[in-house]
Amino acid sequence: MADAVIKDAVMKDVVLLDSGGSNYASLIAAFERLGARCTPSRDPERIRAATHLVLPGVGSAGAAMRAIGEQNLDKLIADSTQPLLGICLGMQVLFEHSEESDVACLGLIPGRVTRLPEAPGIRVPHMGWNSIRSIGSNPLLEGLDGCDFYFVHSYAAPCGEYTRAVTEHGLPFSAAVGAGRIHGVQFHPERSGPQGARLLANFLELAA
Amino acid sequence: MLKKRLIACLDVADGRVVKGVRFRGHEDVGDILELAQRYGAQGIDELVFYDITASPQGRGVAPDWVARVARRIDIPFCVAGGIRSVAQAAEVLAAGADKISVNTPALENPDLIDALAARFGSQCVVVGIDSIRDADGVWRVRSHTGDPDTMRQAGRATLDWLQEAVARGAGEIVLNCMGADGTRDGYDLEQLAAARAACPVPLIASGGAGSMRHFTEVFENTDVDGALAASVFHKNLIAIAELKAELARHGIPVRL
């Protein structure tokens, strides 16, 4: 898995939906290592021209939703037709509501994001490498059932009909979700070694 | 299940990785990118780059090696050393670091922890604590440990400071037990167990690793979330793959 590559010869043109955050360097590098182009943008024309969209997480849910609203990204996301991948907080804001900042989110996936409960031996933030168990067959997670990914978060989405992979930290939560072209992962594929590269390559194989 | 993390610490001076013993006498051990990539390939779970020249030079801009490391490696890394403000942290994170770690600046201005956590989230904010047991038996914090000539008592008991740092928003604590650091005699199990009991967020053991047995000991006896080491990895005294296999044999969950 060390040499994850995109089989499809067409140049992938990934746009990171730019809500004003600045920590995009590692994501851009991860896509570039796969031979894709990857640029942050909030320009509607540029977003329409992309083959794939990524929604990175920036700060807290409240700050992220405010920035998304200010940049009209909510409208652009709703109108887009390409495969979209929300990462970490970018996955959480796909849901209806987040307990973090008690804020209404994009509502593309039903459910409410809540804080992970602490328990003896269960520390929050959930920080480090943890394994995922995939549910059913899913092209995004192909070849990755049981693999470890890097997680850093204090809030999590519940398990439900949109759950594509489950991870446990005290309680089970959604490590990956999917609803049509909308996908999300709670972990950071750009920081998850060869398995993370495989996931991003799988994402780039998804067609609109 | 969440895995126990093995973390390699690379002390960086003027763009090279160096290693000192008990914070004295640095020797050059290699190129940053070369070592970072080697560790990534060997299966290390995380890297910490401690910029030991940033503080004395009062540097404000993230050094370009942070961006180069971010582009090249695909595991998480933390940058420590010389981060005294929210603006400086923002530069390092923008360059691609996953976390920033503060030590002396947090002791001088504890509000810095609150400000960093509010801006970037607790998960980005690591507080490093250098601690040693005083003659009266109490563990206390030392500050300015980057330079033995300026090191001083921080005027705080270690466990009190740890709890204050967490209350202010630290998302992870790296406890460097200075009595053990550089000795390769093993982690300070007693101090780490006491810190564990007081620490609700991830806790990383630092100082004293010399053999594979020391890693199994620290995970079996103190329930720390990760173990950090430097020289045993730099000098190839312990191979990371072998260490992980050994930990797995002891039933300690690791990423294989």
Automatic annotation (TrEMBL), chain B:
Predominantly, its location class is cytoplasm
Keywords, ordered alphabetically: Amino-acid biosynthesis, Cytoplasm, Histidine biosynthesis, Lyase
Q: Which residues cross the membrane?
A: none
The GO terms this record gives for MF are:
imidazoleglycerol-phosphate synthase activity; lyase activity
Q: An example of a Gene Ontology BP annotation on this entry?
A: L-histidine biosynthetic process
Pathways per UniProt: Amino-acid biosynthesis; L-histidine biosynthesis; L-histidine from 5-phospho-alpha-D-ribose 1-diphosphate: step 5/9
Could you tell me which Pfam families the record lists for this protein? His_biosynth
Q: Which Gene3D superfamilies match?
A: Aldolase class I
Its annotated compartments are:
Cytoplasm
Cellular compartments per GO CC = cytoplasm
Q: EC number(s) per UniProt?
A: 4.3.2.10
Q: Which reaction does it catalyse?
A: 5-[(5-phospho-1-deoxy-D-ribulos-1-ylimino)methylamino]-1-(5-phospho-beta-D-ribosyl)imidazole-4-carboxamide + L-glutamine = D-erythro-1-(imidazol-4-yl)glycerol 3-phosphate + 5-amino-1-(5-phospho-beta-D-ribosyl)imidazole-4-carboxamide + L-glutamate + H(+)
Catalytic residues, per the record, are: D11, D130
Q: Which InterPro entries does the protein's record reference?
A: Aldolase_TIM, His_biosynth, HisF, IGPS_HisA/HisF, RibuloseP-bd_barrel
Q: What does this protein do?
A: IGPS catalyzes the conversion of PRFAR and glutamine to IGP, AICAR and glutamate. The HisF subunit catalyzes the cyclization activity that produces IGP and AICAR from PRFAR using the ammonia provided by the HisH subunit.
What HAMAP family does the annotation carry? Answer: HisF
Family as reported in the entry's similarity comment: Belongs to the HisA/HisF family.
Q: How does it assemble?
A: Heterodimer of HisH and HisF.
This one is known as Imidazole glycerol phosphate synthase subunit HisF
Q: What organism is this sequence from?
A: Arenimonas maotaiensis
Q: Which gene encodes it?
A: hisF
